[in-house]
Design a protein that fits this description.
Number of helices: 6
Shape: globular
Structural class: mainly beta
Low-confidence stretches: 1-21
CATH superfamily of the largest domain: Single-stranded right-handed beta-helix, Pectin lyase-like
Radius of gyration: 28 Å
Largest sheet: 14 strands, parallel
Distance between the termini: 31 Å
CATH topology of the largest domain: Pectate Lyase C-like
Helix content: under 10%
Number of domains: 4
Strand order of the largest sheet: 1-2-5-27-30-33-36-39-42-45-48-51-54-56
Mean pLDDT: 93
Strand content: 25-35%
Number of strands: 58
Amino acid sequence: MKSLLKVLVILLVLLTSCNNRGRGLVLYVSNSGNDTWSGRTDSVNIKKNDGPLRTLEGARNELRKLRMQGKLPKGEIVVEILGGTYEMSETFELENTDGGEKPESRIIYTGREGEEVRLNGGRQLKVWQPVTDEKILNMFYPEARGKIFMTDLKASGILTYGSPEGGGAELFFNDRPMRISRYPNTGFIGITGVLNENPVDVRGTKGDLKGKFLFSDNRVTKWVNEKDAWVHGYWFWDWSEQRHKILKIDARRKLIEVVPPYHNYGYRTGQWFYGFNLLSEIDEPEEYYIDRTEGILYFYPPSEIKDGKTYLSVSKSIINLKNVTFVTFQGFTIEGCTGTAVTMDGCDSCIIAGCTVRNTGDNAVVINEGKSSGVSSCDIYEAGAGGILITGGDRHTLTPSGNFAENNYIHHIARLKRVYNPGISISGVGNIIRNNLIEHVPHMAIGFTGNDNIIEYNELNDVCFESNDAGAIYTGRNWTMRGNIIRYNYLRNISGFEGKGCVGIYLDDAFSSAEIYGNIFYKVTRAMMIGGGRDNKVINNIFIDCDPSIHVDSRGLGWMENLHIPDWIKEAEEKGTILGIAYKNPPYSERYPELVNIINDEPRAPKGNIVSNNICLGGNWDKPSGFWNTAIDKKARPYLKMEKNVVSPGTLVEDSLSQSIIIADPMFMGGNNPEKSEYQLDPGSPAIKAGFVPVPFRSIGLHKNKYRTGSF
């Protein structure tokens, strides 16, 4: 792992020192340029027959030509794009021959320093007129009439719009995403009943698999006149949502029936939804509706439409790299696509640095496989789905990828796909998430699977606010995904939808062998959760006003006894593998020796977990609370090692476990306000005497460097 970090440091040093190295060639791109010119100068010459290139494609093609001719100079190649907006009607693509061959011959596409350079996948809409058709006006509520404008998309050359389900055209006004018309404008409508035509019962939670449900809100009955009405809801579980087209509305019975396919888990009373894509519900600024049959867009602008800039996303993506080496994109605003903005497939040492990636229909950046590639010092927001998704490394050989997400500010994402689209997601081996700030996300902030990944020095705030039974940092359901380290992260203000509760770090369904070290949890419900897994270490963490701080259960000996685990055991006995991994052979037998004999060592039991040298101030240490009926359940206790945990007086403690803690004031320098002292302890603290090591709070979160875009 040290070699991995060394590679990352070298890459970042190379990146930040680019201005100090000799440049082999500089090409310029400008909106005033021409792709038939040489691109060797940043302005048009006197004869107006040479100057900058016009497009990124023009620069790429010039480099291809030089390479084919054997004239590509040695050293770093820089493509400098001058300020302005570049409409990306097609995806900018680089292939395996378009990159640098060595670190010193890296190819850098960069926006000119001090100028705004925008790569925009949208089409500007300039022709608007007030709605005057009486039939349409009568669909609006009186207070909205006269304030809604329309434009003919077909006349603007836009002929495809996608589906309201997601991935289609979206409207942006003054660089902000507008909202497809919906009701209610905020919040949800409750499901008041289901018909039980196809009943379902999941461990006592009952519902109906058929997509018919009752409501009580009279306003919904008006939607019977809508020709393309949809609903979006959390239909059965608080962590699983889906969009449905409405098949019909029975106004008399107050019943909605949706178009199949139905939600996998079904529908149940007490869950929630809202309606959208409703022409009649354009009733406040920022709402719009696309009539996909007629090609007409209706819009209630938040300010004078003639003074604003309006565009519709058209291009699917902005940048796509495939099997490329040593390429950097830096200093751009990348925006306005219907899908993922930037994709890197199988790349080596490729970096997105110092960019703003926003207003996407799907993810911001996706890195598929490859190695030593990443996203650094970027601002990412208003993505339709996730922020940064990274896969890389070989789980069979435990070969690390070294892919990374570092020093990024990610916020207000998952606009359309609300759950399981985290700020950052990693999968594979040896990936790194470091020094990011992730906040205001409806579901989880960080998701991870795989082996030997590192999640460190991140700050997570106000996440999981629209879901319950969710984790700010989440993973689950695998014995063989081991060696992951989660350290020095700061999690705060995380309580779930309607305050019903969620989890800070959630090791779900028997996930095993994670090291949770030196993290700070402030006002987090169910701060640290071990869900039946093994060999997890929760050491040297700080819990402030959490409810509770620690949860350890034995689900493998309970409801999960006959779910998943029997299949793992059967596979191990018949094939010598668990979930496809030859766990008894190198490198697994050498890297994780405790895994070798797991099938013969009470495999369903939560063995080997350690909770030690932690600090808890206020709140609840280990008592059941909220809708959770356990904190440390009785079957898990004999297997759990708990020692040297310092818990302040007055904190709620399970009496039967009191012998595993030290009741004492931990003596933060800031007293009852630990943040004031950056969570540092008085030298005489009983926690320090028990072995607690101070947490490097100042190193957590964003750090400034020349590639930070400055919006934090």
